Structure formats: structure tokens, C-alpha cells
Amino acid sequence: MTTLTSPPGGAAIRHPAPPATKGRSGTPRQGGTILAVPALVWYAVFMIGPVIAIFVIAALHWPGMLQPVSFAGLGNVRTVLDDPVFWDAVRNTAVQLAVALPIMIVCAYMLGYYVAQKPPGHRVIRYLLFIPGLISTPAKAMVFYAALSPDGLANGALESVGLGSLTDAWLASPSTALACLIALDVWSGIGFTAVLFAARLDSVPDDLGEAAQLDGAGHWRTMWRIHFPVIRDYVGVVTMLQFLWTLFGSAQHVLLLTQGGPGSSSTTLSFLVYQKAFIAADLGYSQTVGVILFLAGLVGLLTIRRAFRQNY
Q1: CB 196 within 8 Å of CB 116
Q2: Residue 8 pLDDT exceeds 50
Q3: Which residues does the UniProt record annotate as the domain ABC transmembrane type-1 (predicted)?
Q4: Which of 302, 179, 300 is CA-nearest to residue 244?
């Protein structure tokens, strides 16, 4: 559409009208949806499909991949709840999360805050913090095995300082096996998490910290009273990621170092799923524990999200 204007004493001038734009209530563009279709199909097939399969298999009596399948109903649930090994796994998983997660998040945040202050050599420190994340899981397990074996570095260090009475078979003792796994979780996750916190803290305006220090606040109060509330939601996201990694990823550390023993002293829920599926060939039991693990993860995510949501 065009408009005509006639200046005083002159001929009319034709002005093209600006192109029409659709408002918020106009027809939405379909390009973005079409581009997302492959990703949505992939997600539905390889994410939602396995979750549904877990619930289906949990209701079956399936003693092995090539064995006949029959409907078990709630029989697997009763079997799991009557199994003392399951309750040992629940206890061990709860202890693992209650100890590893707070230590990892608090120490990683403090370390990330230190790196974000850009001390001398801070770029080198960032690379060094990434080293545990660059090492494969079997290699990390071998490092801990070499340090905690009966003739390893830990016992050697204790004997060299005259504390030989404190030596122990750390990975083979019911009282220390789980603690060793927790130490491995913290060591392997704290550096990478600190780098994530440092990257987020770099985006916080420097004026906030400078104003707090001018008012007499030290680094401790600035770290927890100024910077932490600003990135509180990001801390929640990182906490959820580490919660999921610890909850579902602990099976590989257990498998490589303790095999769930001695007895069931280091058996976790994720390792119990693996053990029952691939060693005991009881797929119904395994996926029943998988359903419980899925529900525990969902409840944990919602709890963390609520605990770290912004309050302003």
C-alpha cells in the first residue's frame, strides 16, 4: 500500500508503505517446528521409549534375554522390598549422596570463586582443574586402586610417618569401601564443577564485589552474601547435574573397584540394576529397581529445583 503526499506548491509524491508485520496474535511461523521434528523424533524413540520399557519390564518375570517371559504384576516389587541387599543399596546410595554432593558443590563453588578472582596463573589453574574430567573412568579407578591397595600409596605414607597401626585394606574393608567410592566421586567431579562455577561467576558484574568490599565486606561475605544469591539458580542446575551423575553413574566405580563388596557394603542402587540384569539375569528385578531409581531421581530433581530457586 502506498500513500500520496503533496508538499505546498509541488507535485504529489508517492511514498511506499512499510511492510506489514504480524503481531503477537498473528499466525506463528512453522519453520522452527519443522526443524525440531528430527530432534523430537530422536528424543521420543531413544529417551521416552526406554523409560516406558523400564516400567513394562518391571512387571514381567524375565529370567534372561533368551528365556520365556511371563507376567509378574507386583511380584517383582514384593521381591525387591523383601530383599535385604536392596535396603543395603538404598542406605549406601543415600549416604553417598548426602556426603558427596554437599562436599562437591560447596568446595567447587569456593574453588570457582577463587579462580574467578583471576589470581596469578588462573588460566593454568582452569586447565589443571579439568584434568580429572579428561581421565577415563578405568584410569581413575586404577589410580585409586594403586593408592588404596594394601601395599599402595596410602598405607605406605602412613607407615612412613609412624602410623602403621592405621593401615587397612581400604577397598576390601566393609567400613571403608563406600568411603573410598565417595572420595573418588568427589575427586573426579569437583574440578570440572569448579570450572563451571568460575565461568558463571565471570559474568557477574565486578561492581557488586567492589561495592561490597568498599562497605567493609571480606571475601567470605562477598562470596556467600553477594555472589551466591546472584547465581543461585545456576548452582541449582549444577547440583542437579551432579546429583544425577552420582545417582546413576556410581555403578561404574563400584564395578571397577569393589564389585559391591565386601558383601553388600558398597552396593548402590545403580550397581544393583547392573548386577541383577547382567550377572543374575533377573531382568524383572533389575528394572523394578530401575523404576525406583527413576522415581528417586525425579523426586531429587524437583527437591533441588525448589531448594535453589530464586527468592526475589
Answers
A1: no
A2: yes
A3: 90-304
A4: 300
Tell me the pTM. Answer: 0.83
Nearest to 233 by CA among 161, 294, 179, 305: 305
Residue type at position 60: L
Q: Is residue 263 helix, strand or coil?
A: coil
Q: Which residue has the cell 503533496?
A: 6
What does the pLDDT read at residue 27? 53
Which residues 6+ apart lie within 8 Å of 39 measured at CB? none
Residue where the block lists cell 560447596: 106
Note the pLDDT tens digit of each residue in 122-144: 888 888 888 888 888 899 999 99
User: What residues are paired with 60 via a beta bridge?
Assistant: 71
Q: What is the mean pLDDT of residues 295-309?
A: 93
In this structure, are residues 254 and 181 in contact, taking their beta carbons and an 8 Å threshold?
Answer: yes
Separation of CA 153 from chain center: 30
* Residue 143, C-beta contacts closer than 8 angstroms, at least 6 positions apart: 135
> What contacts 148, CB < 8 A, 6 or more positions away?
154, 170, 171, 180
Angle at 235 between CA 89 and CA 106, to 5 degrees: 65
Task: List helix spans (H) across 117-218.
Answer: 122-129, 131-134, 137-148, 153-160, 177-201, 206-214
The CA distance from 57 to 46, in Å, is 16
